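step 3/5: co-fold with calcium ion
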Amino acid sequence: MRISGIETFVAKAPTGANSFWSSQAVFPERVSLLVKITTDDGIVGWGEGGQYGPAEPVASAIVDVLGPRLIGEAADAPVRIWEQNYAFSRDFGRTGTYIEAMSGIDIALWDIWGKSLGRPAYHLMGGAFRDRVMAYGTGCYYPEDFRDTDAMMQALAEEVSAYAAAGVTAIKIKLGLLPVEQDAARVKLIRETVGPRVKLMADANHAYHSATAMRMGRVLEQFGILWFEEPVPPEDHDGYRRLRAALDVPIAGGECEFTRFGFREFIGGGCVDIVQPDVCACGGLSEWQKVVSLATQHGVLAVPHVWGSGVGVAAALQAIAVVPPTPHTALPVDLQNEPMLEFDRTYNPLRDGILERNFELKDGAMAIPDGPGLGISVKEEALMAHVTQKRSVGAG
Ligand code: CA
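step 4/5: write tokens
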């Protein structure tokens, strides 16, 4: 079984009236880079490369640089292919675009290998610890008109009420666009709206330096927030360590980190209690396993960052399946030693519209697909409605 063709799809969905802000930027569109690999015996595998950065450079890295070298290679050897790609691109691509490209290729190869054997990818990774995972909803971004404080606060209360009514038992809220005092009022409103039993986490998207993050962290402690995500820029390991030593709220991060080598410094350097690699960016399922190994060696729980298309969600579910309870107990508890699924609740037709069967929560939990490979079928026609660039190498 050899790789015969590789196709890339840059898919874009304008958010229109649903646009929103994080601390870093407004999101006028959702973007995904999907990879489709075909083998000489007709098996097709899908992957996603990258998370919210530009997709065209990732497509170019696949089609112009890495892909031509892979035609004719074994399609059921993702770890070896990963190491070959990394060795080839080490001098110019140890983070960013090239690792995102390698992630998409890697996920597609795990999908192919699983399909060739009729087994889910998690089986090939050594077996699943769970067949379902509790999900947390990511939302509570800032609206386009965040300067209208009254309207923003009312919309926020309505948003979290809708999550609670939909059976979501955990919500992650956004911080860092506004001054600490104003964001503290948002946190207070959310806690008062959902009550004490709904789990809340908070994500600053690296908005603060460590002194401001300390002030925000003290606020989060008052409202029982279960983690403080990306409080400081990803390069500021000293800032991470300072916060982790001083605050009671657990510190999380890692979506901007790449490969086992990046996570060796981030996890091994004592930066986080909860590490959040993005499978579509950190190096795919092959590298995910190595990062999980690092995390368990340091008593850190791995909870993947998930913000991509339906293919990215599917890859994350396979990844979550193989995370051991950290540490083991007879009855794992969410976020104490059991991972959760990040279930992005913002507008994204690439997440909700391109699979034969959409991902849906049941009692706040997501079943982990147990079909071959990633356990999903991509509706290519539905995907093509969003595709702005399609490229290929080899015979598709
Ligand atoms: Ca985040």
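step 5/5: annotate
The mean pLDDT is 97.
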